[in-house]
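I'm stuck. Protein, please.
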Amino acid sequence: MTKGLYRNSRFKGSKTAKVALKSLEYFEVGNIDLEESKPGLEAQVKLHFPAIKRNRMPYDFIYHPRPELKKVYKLLNTPGLIHNDTLLLVDQPYCNPQTIKEWESIKEIPGVTVTIDMFHCSAVFFRREQVKQHFRIRI
């Protein structure tokens, strides 16, 4: 956490955008999927990470604007979309009762092993060798 999220950043934008950009840098991401990205996020990705490829599978990093069970099931059940180290960043899991319900359900999916709840956004990992853990941190 201290090496990735808590260090000072050269990136600008919302908390979610900063988490996304710090994650791209820390995990040395190569392939991304930015579904309906936040304004400016795509431009910053192009500026700071010109070598990153968009929409090329398997994805190392996926940004999704809202928590959706069907999206996570699709990722887990479609061969070639993700790999063991893929990070799914979900924006605004607490914006309304429906997203809260979806977020709580996502945490219970068997293929989801680690979640990091940062209130403004949440990270989902699919690491098969890791035991299921849920973290709540303040950024």
